[in-house]
Amino acid sequence: MSRLAVPKTYKLFIGGAFPRSESGRTYEVLAADGAFLANAAKASRKDARDAVVAARAAVAGWSGATAYNRGQVLYRIAELLEGRRAQFTAEIEQAEGVSRAQATVQVDEAIDRWVWYAGWADKFAQVSGNANPVAGPYFNISVPEPTGVVAIVAPQDSSLVGLVSAIAPALVAGNAVVVIASERFPLSAISLAEVLATSDVPKGVVNVLTGSPAEIAPWLAAHADVNALDLVGAGALDWVDLEVAAAETLKRVLRPENGQDAAAPALDRIVAFTETKTVWHPKSLR
């Protein structure tokens, strides 16, 4: 006897919890062949505001953790992703219409990128910071510090690799993020949120919104408590208007990138959302 399918409704991930959209809206997520896969929450302006509040509350604790601790937490996420390879592979295979082998390659690439970024957690400050030569009996040292709350429009043509490539570098630097997942391929984003919820990542450090980037991004771009905007996946949007809105509150903006792998692993993606603090200290007079 055949079983009755139980359609799943994926929720948002805000402040470490999985709420429904306050608007009650959902949309259908379809497979590459048009078959129904699941329902996903369609985030509203209120959901975006709630996510920013959660991210702001998490910044101090996450940025205040040692770089070594952040690295270990990120490594743990990679371990959990490894344990759920089959689930992510199946989701990508269905959503994108690729073969099982191709989906597996994508999942492995996402895990490898997460590990790559985790390894930079206690190293990037030595590379991007420096001791400056100055005249006088002083030490002058420049060190990178996190920008704060980073809003991200994830790559829209990728289920998992693009999402990981956008989120991980911001976390390495000590930022908290609000990410708008791929509208067409949101299932891996919520599955990643389930991984984060069972990891050591403090609640609010990562907040995942699903729905329409064209609807949600303008609210985040104009939000006064968002410190930076990553538009890596906003190439199809009117991203110039988003940049103008961000300028009203002096946000740092990373523009959309072109190419097959716009969010490829790079140290520049880590330091993009950091601020440089320079400290003077007198040398001993003895």
Describe it.
- It comes from Agromyces intestinalis.
- Residues 25-237 form the Aldehyde dehydrogenase domain.
- InterPro entries: Ald_DH/histidinol_DH (IPR016161), Ald_DH_N (IPR016162), Aldehyde_DH_dom (IPR015590).
- Keywords: Oxidoreductase.
- The protein has 286 residues and is α/β, with parallel strands linked by helices.
- Helix content is 43%, strand content 19%.
- The chain contains ten helices and eleven strands.
- The protein has helices at residues 45-64, 67-83, 85-96, 100-120, 124-128, 161-172, 187-197, 213-222, 239-247, 267-271; strands at residues 9-10, 26-30, 36-41, 130-131, 138-146, 149-153, 176-180, 206-209, 228-230, 252-254, 274-282.
- It has a five-stranded parallel β-sheet, sandwiched between helices. The protein has a three-stranded mixed β-sheet with strand order 1-3-2, with no helix packed on it.
- Helix 6 (161-172) links the parallel strand 6 (149-153) and strand 7.
- The model has no long low-confidence stretch (mean pLDDT 93).
